């Protein structure tokens, strides 16, 4: 079911709304994700990888703030 909504620009539209609101309020936008492939998608949509934290047996946590 989710596949039919992919590659239609919905994620970009949602992030554009969030970026605009952050700009309007003058605050940074910070996003945390738990997988490199997710982080890569956010970077593709205009975010910047700011760091990665090792969580031991729980894997890595990637921070992708603007």
Describe this structure in words.
It is a single chain. The protein is 38% helix and 15% strand. A three-stranded antiparallel β-sheet has the order 1-3-2, covered by helices on one side. The protein is flat and about 35 Å long. It contains two helices and three strands. By secondary structure, it is of the alpha+beta class. The model has no long low-confidence stretch (mean pLDDT 80). The chain has helices at residues 10-25, 36-44; strands spanning 32-33, 51-54, 60-63.
Number of strands: 3
Q: Can you tell me the residue ranges where pLDDT is under 50 for at least 5 consecutive residues?
A: none
The count of helical stretches stands at 2
The biggest beta sheet is recorded as: 3 strands, antiparallel
Q: Describe the strand arrangement of the main beta sheet, using strand numbers.
A: 1-3-2
The percent range for helix content is: 25-40%
What is the rounded distance between the termini?
30 Å
Order of H and E elements: HEHEE
Overall geometry: flat
pLDDT averaged over residues:
80
How large a portion of the residues is in β-strands, by DSSP E? 15-25%
Structural class: alpha+beta
Radius of gyration: 13 Å
Quick overview:
By secondary structure, the chain is of the alpha+beta class. The chain has two helices and three strands, in the order H-E-H-E-E.
Feature tags:
66 residues; alpha+beta; three-stranded antiparallel beta sheet; 15% strand; 3 strands
Strand-helix topology:
Blueprint: H1 10-25, E1 32-33, H2 36-44, E2 51-54, E3 60-63
Antiparallel strand pairs: 1-3, 2-3
């Amino acid at each position: 079911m989710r596949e039919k909504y992919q590659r239609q620009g919905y994620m970009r539209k949602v992030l554009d709304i969030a970026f605009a609101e952050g700009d309007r309020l003058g605050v940074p936008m910070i996003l945390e994700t738990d997988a490199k492939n997710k982080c890569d998608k956010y970077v593709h949509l205009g975010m910047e990888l700011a760091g990665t934290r090792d969580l031991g047996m729980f894997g890595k946590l990637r921070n992708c703030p603007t």
